[in-house]
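Help! Submission page says 'invalid entity' but I think these are all valid:
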Amino acid sequence: MTRPRPLVPRGDPADSVRVVGEFGVIGRVLAQAGTARAAQVGPGDDAAVLHAPDGRVVATTDVLVEGRHFRRDWSSAEDIGHKAAAANLADVAAMGATTTALLVGLACPPDTPTTWLEGVAAGLAAECAPLGAAVVGGDLVTAAADSAAVVLSVTALGDLAGRSPVLRSGARAGDVVALAGRLGWSAGGLAVLRRGFSSPMAVVSAHRRPTPPYAAGPAAAERGATAMCDVSDGLLADLGHIATASRVVVDLDRDALVRACLEPNGPLQQVGAALGADPLAWVLTGGEDHALVATFPAWVELPEGWVAIGSVQKAGKNPGVRVNGKSADDVARSVGAEGTGHVHFR
Amino acid sequence: MTRPRPLVPRGDPADSVRVVGEFGVIGRVLAQAGTARAAQVGPGDDAAVLHAPDGRVVATTDVLVEGRHFRRDWSSAEDIGHKAAAANLADVAAMGATTTALLVGLACPPDTPTTWLEGVAAGLAAECAPLGAAVVGGDLVTAAADSAAVVLSVTALGDLAGRSPVLRSGARAGDVVALAGRLGWSAGGLAVLRRGFSSPMAVVSAHRRPTPPYAAGPAAAERGATAMCDVSDGLLADLGHIATASRVVVDLDRDALVRACLEPNGPLQQVGAALGADPLAWVLTGGEDHALVATFPAWVELPEGWVAIGSVQKAGKNPGVRVNGKSADDVARSVGAEGTGHVHFR
């Protein structure tokens, strides 16, 4: 079969996984892995064993494909490790839990430099370390013969520490909708990279290494959040999941959202002006910052780091997301977005 | 980029994941998923929540790449689901635990028929169901643009029910080496398929759907097994992991192994005769049957389904595997095997 040209030049062949071999690579990669506080048995056996003193475990998985979810010429190996971990850690946080361990599956072409894999492992470890988590297991295999792309699959396990999980289905009419973390920065950074630029650094860095507000998830659960999810597909799309699961209307307050997300003369405004785009489109439909959105009973004082951006209303027959009463589709169109969020398989 | 020809013809485009869309596909796939007895929160939220009454959770992950670990023209979608689950369930069993749930990541080309994905999901579900386990979460993404291959990553979580995990590092001189399950059948089946045949059905079926002895893992743990692993890379290779981790010599008894694995005039003997190969090579170096091997103190009565195939001896300076005192490499060569087991990145 025709072997497509690698997306970026590969490193020294003497350092490739083909030369070093599976077990040599695993050893070098594991040296970057750190130690999970919860691990009774770490990497190297048939399976890991983790403490779960809560008597429950939270579990989620994400797959990242080179060329679709990351590019090696736009992101360093460390960046990709950080980003892959962040997507999963944010999912765990969105349940009200804290990540305790990761498992990592990697399909890579034989000529992948082991230094690149060590970089990914270092990024994964660095993103997890502040939580006391680490990679406790994994699998390393050869990519498909027709592909020069790396496929990275990450599973995160987490601990609820006695809290009830916060689902998408618990939002009730009268609740406040609140946001923790940034929106639109990753999408702004991606727009910059797509035009061939690499500044402003703030948004490019946000695209390379999102900084989800992990602690805000457990804090929201403790304060009685009724529903929560992370924003991975875009605010309108992800709030749509809460609206559908809870059979409610989520009505966003455009002014509150602008105040929360579009600092005057901030990086998003600058990038929007430079590229002739409305930065509100990135805020409403950009994914991958992994902010958290949640609904709280109206009488609750929002935890630190959370700001109100809307309210929950009765749905009648039409659950969904609105902005100042207008439908999400209309609003997305009015700011020049292609849709309400990320769609796979286009 | 040149798009390589798909390995097998794809189904009706109207049924492809591109047309049905991510969320439609996920809905149809989840309809096959079954319910995990341990699930407090199943699929559809940011993460699943599983009960872990033992206070610990066992976790392992495996990645299967089309063309390397399975072929769509050799295996049905259901077969591939069974096989992907089996590899992980056997890893969990090899710790002395029982699988409670799976998480599944899938990268597939947009023209993959959803019926094929439903078949994989049905196979995963059917393999898990007897244990009370099911798929509780996953991620479905588009494959790399240069690839027509499916990449399937499966994570299994398991429960020790109060037992101590059985590691690879606990074998002691004087222990008995024992086997539960079949060896060489999957390799024999693969040899048959590679020659373009599809019988004898017994070995071809064993390749398509391995039948690991899941219950033998917890039974061995309860009976005091000192070390255990599943045979995924080949008996010599996987016992090598126990020998290295335990710093011992594992000495196999060739006659006992032949009695346990090579029934006179059985399917392996027949295939060997037909293909001009020594079936002992498949027994010693064939992977993917996911038999379990363990070491037990000599005074222990082996649990049901386990048979003795060797003994553990002091290593001196050279831990490793031997057969009747001869080195694994020499023995593998003498039966015509390429090496002691599966090697990645060749």
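Support: the input was valid. A stray whitespace character was the problem, and the output above is from the cleaned input. Chain A has two domains: 15-159, 176-334.
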